[in-house]
Design goal:
The chain is of the alpha+beta class. It folds into three domains: 137 residues, Beta-Lactamase (2-Layer Sandwich), CATH 3.30.450; 97 residues, Orthogonal Bundle (Helix Hairpins); 156 residues, 2-Layer Sandwich (Heat Shock Protein 90), CATH 3.30.565.10. 55% of the residues lie in helices and 17% in strands. The protein has a five-stranded antiparallel sheet with strand order 2-1-5-4-3. Helix 2 packs antiparallel against helix 4, helix 7 runs parallel beside helix 8 and helix 8 packs antiparallel against helix 10. The longest helix has 53 residues. The chain is rod-shaped, with a radius of gyration of 51 Å. About 2% of the residues have low confidence.
Length: 454
């Protein structure tokens, strides 16, 4: 088995074809040999029976007359029950091996003497003079030579057929595996980083083409993951650089203000704000990485999600920067026991991010409206509407991308990292739902989340 494992697929296919061909052809050759040998035996028996027929007829119809002597090339012997030979033209070596008693029925013997093969037919005859057996022999060397020639032809034909089997198997396997060679060379080029592209897909819609398409899909997915990771690292580095620089500057200022308690406290509070921003950014990045991990889909009832919604509204109302802005919410559930593929904490983060964006967009005295409805087909729809100026139209297509912001005003209010909407979309899509952002006709932005029931 180790030897076979070291062989190429092409060599194994060829060896397997040779083995199968050898078994099949050997079986066919054996059957032909047996059939031809039986045919020669039947021919020799028929000829021997023809030589014996006149003597059998003579014994049966003329028992009182002695049988005629056989012709020179006819090998016939007549022996009585007492063992006496009435007629004898059989060769001595053949006569010596014949059985002594008179057989009850016709017999056929295939005798191998020292230098010949003889087919002997024995026919018992009973008449008024007693019991006799007529032995007629026919030299089987011609038939044996025929069988030998056929056997040699079968051996040569089997050998040539096996060569044809091997050549055909090698050629077909080479043609069949040619796309694999092209895919391997392309994969080596791709792994070496020499350009992009995909594995070649053959013109035939076969298993290799299906494999190539599957691998190309895998390559595209890996490229997307690599590009996403690269972009995320680049964006994260850019985002971290600003608060780290600000924090360093704040600490330097605090060090210089060590003799001024008021200035020192101001700088330390500002440093705390920068540190809090760093912590929030790190938490957002951690949440995004968790979304990319393949885990089981949770199951939470609609009633539990309503509880999380109310908790998020309470937290938003308690924020110091909300000011005179009001947050209204309405809930309408028809099936509170329906379950959805969201964890309670994940749904709370979705609400927190959407409400925080709506608060950042509005002005003092404004209202943020939050509704949670359940449609007839069981879908859970969350809608958050603000009364701000809305979102620039050119920003809408990329609103849910990572590290993107509509304007600096929203960032100034909440210190956003541009990851909130990306977290919302990632969380909702993992539950099989959709997230959308648009501008209302009367002004303000409308964020909508829709999650199907499990």
């Amino acid at each position: 088995m180790r030897f076979l494992r070291r062989l190429s697929i092409r060599a194994r296919i060829t060896l397997g074809s040779l083995l199968v061909g050898a078994v099949v052809l050997s079986g066919v050759a054996l059957v032909l040999h047996v059939q031809i040998e039986r045919a020669t035996l039947a021919t020799d028996r028929s000829l021997a029976s023809g030589d014996a027929a006149p003597f059998v007829s003579d014994l049966r119809h003329n028992p009182d007359e002695p049988p005629d002597r056989p012709a020179e090339d006819v090998l016939v012997g007549i022996r009585s029950a007492t063992g006496d030979w009435v007629v004898d033209s059989l060769p001595r070596d053949v006569r010596a091996v014949l059985p002594s008693p008179v057989p009850d029925d016709d017999v056929t013997l295939r005798l191998h003497t020292g230098h010949r093969v003889v087919t002997v037919v024995g026919i018992p005859v009973t008449n008024d003079a007693g019991s006799f057996v007529v032995w007629a022999a026919h030299d089987g060397r011609a038939g044996q030579e025929t069988v030998a020639r056929v056997d040699r032809s079968l051996v040569v034909g089997t050998f040539l057929a096996l060569l044809a089997f091997a050549a055909t198997a090698w050629l077909l396997s080479t043609i069949a595996l040619r796309p694999v060679g092209r895919m391997r060379r392309t994969a080596e080029r791709l792994s070496a980083g020499n350009g992009g592209g995909h594995l070649p897909v053959g013109a035939s819609d076969d298993e290799l083409a299906a494999l190539a398409r599957t691998l190309n899909t895998f390559i595209d997915r890996q490229r997307e993951n690599t590009e996403r990771e690269r972009r995320m690292v680049s964006d994260a580095s850019h985002e971290l650089r600003t608060p780290l620089a600000a924090l360093t500057a704040r600490l330097e200022l605090a060090h210089r203000s060590s003799g001024d308690a008021v200035a020192l406290e101001r700088e330390l509070r500002a440093a705390e704000g920068d540190a809090a921003r760093l912590v929030a950014l790190a938490n957002a990045l951690l949440e995004l990485s968790r979304l990319d991990e393949a885990e089981g889909v949770p199951s939470t009832s609609a009633a539990a999600l309503v509880t999380e919604l109310m908790g998020s509204i309470d937290r938003a109302r308690a924020l110091t920067h909300v000011g005179a802005r009001d947050i209204d919410f309405a809930v309408e559930l028809t099936a509170p026991d329906e379950h959805y593929g969201l964890e309670p904490a994940a749904f709370a983060r979705v609400v927190d991010n959407l409400v925080a964006n709506a608060i950042a967009a509005g002005e003092d005295g404004g209202v943020v409206r939050v509704t949670l409805d359940q449609s007839a087909d069981g879908r859970l729809d969350l809608c958050v509407v603000d009364d701000g100026p809305g979102v620039p139209d050119d920003f809408l297509p990329q609103a849910f991308d990572r590290f993107t912001r509509a304007d600096s005003a929203r960032r100034a209010v909440l210190g956003g990292s541009g990851l909130g909407l990306a977290l919302v979309r990632g969380t909702v899509e993992r539950a099989g739902g959709t997230a959308d952002l648009c501008n209302a006709a009367s002004g303000g932005a409308v964020a909508t989340v829709s999650v199907p029931a499990r």
